[in-house]
Structures are given as structure tokens and as C-alpha cells.
Amino acid sequence: MYTATTRAIRVTVQPRYLPEQSDPGKSQYVWAYQVRIENKGAVAVRLQSRHWTITDGLGRRQDVKGKGVVGETPRLEPGGVFEYTSGTPLSTPSGFMGGTYQMISDAGEAFDIEIPTFSLDTPGGARQLN
Hints:
The protein has a single domain (2-118), classed as ApaG domain (Immunoglobulin-like, Sandwich), CATH 2.60.40. It is built from no helices and nine strands. The chain has strands spanning 2-6, 9-17, 29-39, 45-56, 61-67, 75-76, 81-90, 94-105, 110-121. 19% of the residues are buried.
């Protein structure tokens, strides 16, 4: 698992390779990742948008931006938790991704929180640092 905490908001990510959706013979590799966002602070916040940077094993980078996550803009009360699962394809058997969530507090303050950079590796494959 990979974890980052920014302004009392903890983001934990757990990736897993999906061999049943992958086809290495066609250079298609697919991962799911489960995200847990915990508000450890004293103020309620809402996740407004996301910015992911996905890098494949050849160093090719793709930026993905959008409103909310999985069609939602969750509000987290102090002590609140939001979890979701999503996925990403790559054309290489390894890579990594990370980014930021754009948050807004109930007081109207906008700020970014870190999504920890995490590794996407096929089981038994050689890890490649980019």
C-alpha cells in the first residue's frame, strides 16, 4: 500500500494487476487500484477534481484531469472516509502513477492534496525505475 497525508487528509492506494483483462501478446496490461481518502482533520472537505500523471515503463507520460472521482464529488466530514476503485491500462508491463486531488473546505478554501505515487508491476516481472 502507498500512503500520503496532506493537511490531515490521508490518501492510501493499493494497486493490483488484472491478468484476466490483460493481453501481453498485444501489449495490453491493466491494473485496478483501490483508493481510501480519510479526513483526519477538524474541518469538512469536498473532493472537487483530480489530476493523475501516469507513466509507462518507457517513460511516456499521460496526464488525466477531471471532475470528482468515479462520477462523485464526495464530502468528508471530520473522521469521514471515502473509498473507490478504478483502473488504468498500460502498453508496457510496468509503470507508475500519482497525482493530486483538488479539495475545498466548508470555509471555501481550495487546496491540493497528494495522491501517493505508486508502482504498477506485473507479477514476476522485473521492476523498472523510470
